[in-house]
Amino acid sequence: MRSARLSVPPLVLACLLSAGCSSVQLGTSTSSSTQSPAAGAPRTTAPTGKGKAIAVGEGPQKHYVVRQQPAARSCHYRYEHGEPLEDPACTPGAISPAVTQANLKSTICRKGGYTSDIRPSAYITGKEKRLNAASYGYTGRMGDAEYDHLISLQLGGDPNDPRNLWVEPADPGHRKGSGINNRKDPVETKLHTAVCKGTISLAAAQQAIVTDWTTALSRLHLN
What we know:
With 223 residues, this protein is an alpha+beta fold. It has helices at residues 10-18, 122-136, 184-197, 202-211, 216-219; strands at 43-45, 54-56, 78-80, 83-85, 94-95, 146-149, 165-168.
């Protein structure tokens, strides 16, 4: 009976003989495998198509606590056509692990609403709003500014992750003392409708918002 011989590529054989390789696997792919995030590292979700990965927050909680905000005056507003935008270094956005493309009908698209059940109390958000105003150096009337979810709750944004919340100043031409009134809200509503109709994916809507909410509708051909 002839003994079976294992065919070893010359390069691998040389590597083994010289002991210059830390590990060699025969008959397996050399591509690296995906590793789970280290403990304490922010979880992320891979983007669909072009765009950066978006952080994944803790999701809805039974009892919310006041979250730590960025250092005072460390965040800086940007402006596009006069509209205020968040500082991506401070407010890159964060999504809720409780909302996925597979469970839209039982979460953000369900009849009877979803956001009221997961929204933090005014007691929590009121304290966070004041702290975040200091982060952004906002000195205007607090009643005219919205403590806004960058990725709104109706688009699967995380309810209380500091990466997803910012003090959004009033729109240009807003009359002082007239309360909150911004143009971002209708954009979010249109995106929500499109997601629930299946016109666009949840991930596409989330990416469009974190990229630039002022161009989100045109980017997705919804305007």
